[in-house]
Amino acid sequence: MTSKTKHTPLPWRHGDAYHDPGRGENIFIGSDGIVVATTGDIGGFLEEANADLVLTSVNARPKVEGLLRWINSYGTEALPPQLVDKAREVKAALKGEA
User: Which of 68, 64, 51, 61 is nearest to 9 (CA)?
Assistant: First the structure.
């Protein structure tokens, strides 16, 4: 379930880069200090909300993968069917299949 592709180490954090006076853009920085991506300058609260969503999603992934491993090792027969179904949906989403 864990990606085989190497990516910038987690956790990522949010930073600001100012390329032009008065105009900033959100940047994402890995724990190694390398810039991961920028959002560009789409403006204000929407840009901040998008940046927060990206960071919380990316940084939560190892925890979600750990929970799915636990569910799988526990045995799905002993768990409520709804929990097993949701775990399968999350696993598919992490693979980009949702």
Answer: 61
Residue type, 29: I
Supply the pTM of this predicted model.
Answer: 0.63
Bridge partners (DSSP) listed for residue 26: 16, 40
Q: Please, what is the Cα angle at 96 between 91 and 98, to 5 degrees?
A: 70
- pLDDT tens for each residue of 8-20: 787 887 776 544 4
**What is the rounded CA–CA span in Å between residue 77 and residue 70?**
13
**Terminal Cα-to-Cα distance of the chain (whole angstroms):** 14
Q: Where along the chain do its domains lie?
A: 13-94
